Amino acid sequence: MNYLDIDKLRALSTEQFMAVKPYPFYNEPMLTDAGFADLAQNLPGLEHFAAIMGKERRAGQAPHDRYSLEYTPDMEVPRPWQEFIGELRSDAYRNEIQRLLGARKVEFRFHWHYTPSGADVSPHCDARREHGSHLFYFNPRDQWDPAWGGATLALDDGGRLDYNSAPDYEDFDDIIEFDTLGNASALMLRSDHSWHAVRPINCPEDKLRKVFIVVINPDNLFWKVRDRLIGKTIQRL
């Protein structure tokens, strides 16, 4: 089975991607229908996750409370996830990501985030060392009520706000809501103005917002050493 619909990335020109405002993003399904169904039915159990709660963030930004699981090559994950991550580590995917993000050489981190009711993601830009990120959402439409929230929001600051700040929603000129239900994904180019967020989730206690994230990093010796020291795992060929 193929999980990743690589032809959708191949069909997206760099010019199209870079022209998107307020910053380049691509919010389209990127998995085959069968691949999405197989992955959604075989997500890692919550018992494998670490609770990341109340963690202090840059410039006084509110914590991003969640359960997190960092992928490592020796991790026992269901077969569909092993195969999907294998596709993400392929030259085919890597080459398209490098082309679209204008990066010469990239490495990947993979992790799952499950977010409970009451939690949110405060407005922020990702770390400067990143080229971008590719989010794959795993809340099937028949299992998640849109009224519960959970959508990723692209925020337009008009180029005004300082990356090292903690703005509120009213500080932005426009808010664009991504489609994050069913077979949805979002590829985002990182900059000092690529603000995004998730409003507080209001779902039943037995539900979780589920997302798998590909963090796209430069192949850089300094960051390799730092990642090893803090326990982050970069995936290489």
List keywords for this structure.
four-stranded antiparallel beta sheet, single chain, seven-stranded antiparallel beta sheet, alpha+beta, Jelly Rolls, 6 helices, 237 residues
The assigned structural class equals: alpha+beta
Oligomeric assembly? single chain
Strand order of the largest sheet: 1-9-6-11-4-3-2
Our Rg estimate from Cα atoms comes to: 17 Å
Q: How many discrete structural domains?
A: 1
Major sheet characteristics = 7 strands, antiparallel
% residues in beta strands: 15-25%
CATH topology: Jelly Rolls
**Residues in helices, as a percent range:** 10-25%
- Superfamily (CATH H level) name: q2cbj1_9rhob like domain
Can you characterise this structure?
By secondary structure, this protein is α+β, with helices and mostly antiparallel strands. The protein has a single domain, classed as q2cbj1_9rhob like domain (Jelly Rolls, Sandwich). Helix content is 22%, strand content 24%. The chain has helices at residues 6-11, 14-18, 33-41, 79-88, 91-101, 221-230, and strands spanning 25-26, 50-52, 66-70, 106-115, 121-124, 132-137, 153-156, 174-177, 184-189, 195-198, 209-218. Strands 1-9-6-11-4-3-2 form a 7-stranded antiparallel β-sheet. A 4-stranded antiparallel β-sheet has the order 5-10-7-8, with no helix packed on it. The protein is globular, with a radius of gyration of 17 Å. The mean pLDDT is 94.
